[in-house]
Structure formats: structure tokens, C-alpha cells
Amino acid sequence: MEKGNTITFSKNVFIPLTRLCRDHCGYCTFKIEPGEGELFIPPEEVINTARNGASLGCTELLFVTGDKPELKYPIYRDGLSKLGYGTTAEYLTAMSEAGLRENIFPHTNMGVAKCEELAALRETNASMGLMLETISERLLRKGEAHYRSPDKVPKLRLRTTEYAGELRIAWTSGILVGIGETLEERIDSLFAIKRLSDKYGHIQEIIIQNFNPKQGIIMEKHLPAGFLDMIKTVSVARLIFGKRMNIQIPPNLNSKTFPLFILAGANDLGGVSPITIDYVNPEAPWPQVERMERSLGELGFTLKERLPIYPEFIGEEFLSNKVLERVKGFVDSSGYVAT
Ligand code: SF4
User: Fold this and answer.
1) How many domains does the chain have?
2) CATH code (residue 226)
């Protein structure tokens, strides 16, 4: 589906179901240790946030977690088991079911996952995602961004992406720009995603996300991703993936410059939340939808709201029956959110 002058976004609520994580990425601002905050968001709070979001017109319930904290923290494992769950994936599955009942569509980012975990989540999730981030194994070495981060082994992330292809899950992937990768590695990362997209046809969007240093992170002294580097990366991604791929640029990380990224080839602005912050980039407030609409309108583009699944993926192939039935009640004949 070619998008022409249409630029999309979705209205979401962000639920950082657990911020514990067994990895140590150099750019991370999401992860906390036990004692620095709650071990996980309890079910009642998830349901209230989902209900609140749905009542404000949000259609995406974005679940983000650290990667496999149950393998590292006994206190977290005990807390989960008191709720009746053995793993983060089981808790996510239950909360996705609860969220869908509130008439909002789950989109889960849980990190590297097993095939059976994704299959369980598929029942209630409209789409899911895992950024490849980088194909570079060099960045796993001491002193690099993914040192002591076993879930950042590129092969594992590609394998999870393949499981999603086999299961017919509309999938979000993407890369991080400026985390120490070379230009060649960055392009190789895009081609690695392209190979899986060509093989399975399930990649619905590619996020091109820029690294920004923040106080307190391991990489706080590193330079941010350069603006021109980002523009070039978006253009090259458009050339590699062709006209039909959705290329997303996070507007809160590029609040002044996002229209330029649209001119360079991006066509999606991701999830914007009226009620929750971006827990992965808490310093970056969401731009207002009206402002995005105005800026894009001046350049001749039209902003349209989409669900967490893009119009071209809506159908029996990529959605369970119970999700598809609900989706039909939300979209117009072109697959965008009905106004
Ligand atoms: S996997 Fe995610 S949450 Fe865990 S340290 Fe890395 S960036 Fe942070």
C-alpha cells in the first residue's frame, strides 16, 4: 500500500509493565533495580490505565518490559508468582487479555521471546515488536553499548523476528543510530531486517531511532546521533525498503525537525500519548497532535490516525479472530481510525 501524502500516528498509553531487566545497555534510561521503584505495575493499575486511555480515545496499549528480569531477580520472581505467573511473558499475556477487554489494542515489546510466548500474545495483540537495534556483534564487547547485554546478541533478535514471521504477527523492527555502530554496520542492520521482511512479509514498520546522551547512563559522555546522519539514514532506509514500507521517526526525539524527516522519506510518527510519558525517553515530551498536523499540512501532508496495526495488515492473516472483530469496529473502509 503506497501512502502518498499520508503520514500516520497512533494514540497510545504506555505501560512499562516491569522496568527490571537482566541487560546493561549503555544508553538505557528505562531499567531500574529492585528498590528504585515498583517491581511491576500491578494488574489493577494496568486495567485502570487501559480503561482511562480507551475513554480518552487511545487505541494502542503499549506494553514495554525489561528483558527477562525473572532470570536475575528472585524478588521479582516471587512477586510474579504471588500473582500466579511464572514469567514476564505470562504476565504480559494476562494483561494483554485484560487490556483488550477494555477496548484498547495491546502492542507488546518484551525483548527476545520464545515462539510459544509470541503465539500466546498473538491472541490478544494487534501487533508486536522488537527493534533489531544493530546487527553488530562488535557492540557486545567491553566498553561498547551492548556489553553485558545477552539479549542484544543480533542472532537472537533476528530469531525472535523470524518466529513472528512464522506466526504471522504484524511486526515492528528498527535500528538505533549513534550507539557506536559504523556506517557499514548501520546499513547492514537495515539489510538484515530487509531480508526477513522479504522472506516473511510481516514487518509493518521500521523505526529509525536516534541515540541521545542523558545524565546517569553509561554512555552519558557519548555524542548524540547527528542530525544529518539521521536524515541520511532515513533516506537510505526508504531506498532499501521501497515505497510500501512504513518508516517511523519518533517525533518526541525530533520535536523541531520531524517535518524534515518526512521530506527525507519517513511516513509515520509512531505512538503519541495524551496521558502517559515516554518511559524510554522520559525527558522528551510528546508533541501535540494539532501541532504535528499543522506542521505537516504546511508541507502538503495529511496526518491520519492508525491503529497499532497498519491498514495493509488488517485481516485474518495477521490478527486473531477476537482482535479482528474488535478492529473492524474502529476503522473506516481504508483501515485508518474512523473519525
Ligand atoms: S534491554 Fe532495554 S531495558 Fe534492558 S538495559 Fe537494554 S535498553 Fe534497558
Assistant:
1) 1
2) 3.20.20.70
In a domain, 221, yes or no: yes
Residue 142 has pLDDT above 90, yes or no: yes
Question: What local confidence, expressed as pLDDT, does residue 221 receive?
Answer: 96
177 part of a folded domain: yes
Q: Is 23 in the pocket of ligand 1 (CB under 6 A)?
A: yes
Q: Is the CB of 67 under 6 A from ligand 1?
A: yes
Q: For ligand 1, is residue 30 a contact (CB within 6 Å)?
A: yes
Q: Tell me the average pLDDT across 290-305.
A: 92
| Domain interval for residue 304 | 6-11+111-328
Ligand 1, atom 8, lies closest to the CA of 28
User: What's the pTM?
Assistant: 0.95
Distance, in Å, from the CA atom of 23 to the CA atom of 20, rounded to the nearest integer, reads: 9
The cell numbers describing 192, all together, are 538484515
* Inside any domain, residue 233: yes
Atom of ligand 1 nearest to the CA of 65: 3
